[in-house]
Amino acid sequence: MRIMVWGPTRLSGQVMVSAAKNAILPILAASMLSSGTVVIKKVPAIRDVHIMMALIQQMGLEVEHAEGILTIKGTPQNILPDYDLSRQIRASFLLMGPLLARCGQAKAFLPGGCAIGTRPVDLHLKGFEALGAAIQITGGCVTATAPRLQGNYVYLDFPSVGATENIMMAAALAQGTTYIENAALEPEVVDLAAFINSMGGRVSSAGSNVIRIEGVAGLGDTAYSPIPDRIEAGTYMVAAAASGGEVIINNVIPEHLKATTAKLLESGAQVKEGPDFIKVSRGQEIKPVYIKTLPYPGFPTDMQAQFMAYLCSAGGSSIITESVFENRFMHIGQLLRMGAQITTEGRTAVIRGVPQLSGATVKATDLRAGAALLIAAITAHGQTIIEDSEHIDRGYENIVYKLNRLGANIYHI
Ligand code: UD1
Predict the structure, then answer these.
(1) pLDDT averaged over every residue in the chain
(2) Spacing, Cα 174 to ligand 1 middle (Å)
(3) ∠ CA(94), CA(100), CA(101), 5° rounding?
(4) How far is the CA of 117 from the centre of ligand 1 (A)?
(5) Domains of the chain and any CATH numbers
(6) What pLDDT is recorded for position 332?
(7) For a 10 Å CB count at each end of the chain, is N or C smaller?
(8) Which atom of ligand 1 sits closest to the CA of residue 111?
(9) How much is the pLDDT for 119?
């Protein structure tokens, strides 16, 4: 698939943010923990969510989807997710914790997803082992077995989002209490804990570095609305600033966007926060900034590519260090095709601002790289064609429509 953009345009108006992809994916996995009926509201129509829904259906659960409302019920009948579906999203690995807890055994293929580094799953497996599971790896497939998981202390060497979530889900039905030390603090982890608790679970202190999970015998019905997508919101914030326009971004939790807001302010943009909206505008030249990606509440790695596209037109040199993932600079080659001046040394990129990017034919190598190219294309002079744009649909609901409404000349071709 391809997207065509004619630039430059100044974005203006209002945009509504959808529910968070990275909250819904673990929540969908956790719905397998319930013996009752799970209703999830405001589910966005994005590809990763559709794949996760298909996986859950293939595990034997009943899934109904109508107008953004998902109803899930049933018991998993199958402990091996489909290979073709699971290799498309790394989050398929999150099915393992709930399956293990519910069925006493779980299998998973070593994960796929965005091509951004090796992304191992050792911390997930270390957690399952600490809860008493036996782990076997053969032919790219992991099997975890434990008739009943036992609560324990789990220390994570790195505050991995996925490992924290997978262990939390497994521990929700374990015998006894689990403590995850050096847990991830991301808002999506907190949302997953709230979802588990809404089914009758006992998870406390999610959002701090030690999460306590008291195992319960079973989980029941719930109706739940996940948090808004802070990365989608951040992408529109940066797009607004990059275009030199003025945009109100609705349905946000400003607290979740502090790092993005701080860097936009530093770069000379104006950011005004309301209770559930943020207004972003920029009149003056973009000032260069220094960014290092870090686990939450640090600057999100999922906003790194978009910010780099923005800084390509700054009045000076910016530095971006990617410390969360190795090999997450694939967008640089594409930005260079549009006239950007960027050099890299290991995990650090130096971005020398140019007066204006120019349109080119480029390729979306992954989800956020694709979002970065959209931002670059809106600011660039002339026509940009973004190939492999299906990567963007993995995480942004109706992005072409939403940007069009803000005044961008953007079309699917
Ligand atoms: C989640 C997000 C992703 C985001 C990332 C970091 C979802 C579905 N995806 O991914 O969008 O970019 O958090 O904010 O929520 N690691 C290990 N061993 C492990 C697990 C992770 O070494 O067992 C490493 C990874 O290779 C990576 C780092 O830890 O370098 C962060 O990964 P993690 O926090 O687990 O990210 P994900 O949960 O995969």
Answers:
(1) 96
(2) 24
(3) 105
(4) 10
(5) 2-18+228-412 (3.65.10.10), 21-224 (3.65.10.10)
(6) 98
(7) C
(8) 39
(9) 64
Helix (H) or strand (E) holding 319: strand 317-321
pLDDT in tens, 234-275: 999 999 999 999 999 999 999 999 999 999 999 999 999 999
Quick one: DSSP state of residue 32? G
**What is the C-alpha separation between 57 and 78, in angstroms, rounded?**
10
Residue 44, token pair as written in the block = 């966005």
Residues 6+ apart with CB under 8 A from 33: 98, 101, 102, 169, 172, 173, 196, 199, 201, 219
The kind and range of the H/E element at 4 are strand 2-7
Ligand 1 atom nearest the C-alpha of 231 is 11
Taking residues 393-399, what's their average pLDDT? 96
The rounded Å distance from CA 119 to ligand 1 centre is 7
User: Given the DSSP bridges, would you call strands 69-73 and 37-40 parallel, antiparallel or unpaired?
Assistant: antiparallel
Answer yes or no: 141 catalytic: no
Q: Pocket around ligand 1: residues whose beta carbon is below 6 Å from it?
A: 22, 25, 90-91, 117, 119-124, 158, 160-163, 188, 301-302, 324-325
Distance spanning both ends of the chain, measured CA to CA: 7
Could you tell me the pTM of the whole model? 0.97
pLDDT tens-digit readout, 86-126? 988 999 999 999 999 999 999 998 764 444 455 689 999 99
For residue 104, the model assigns a pLDDT of 97
CB neighbours of 138 closer than 8 A, spacing ≥ 6?
none
Please tell me the distance from the alpha carbon of residue 97 to that of residue 213, in angstroms, as a whole number. Answer: 14
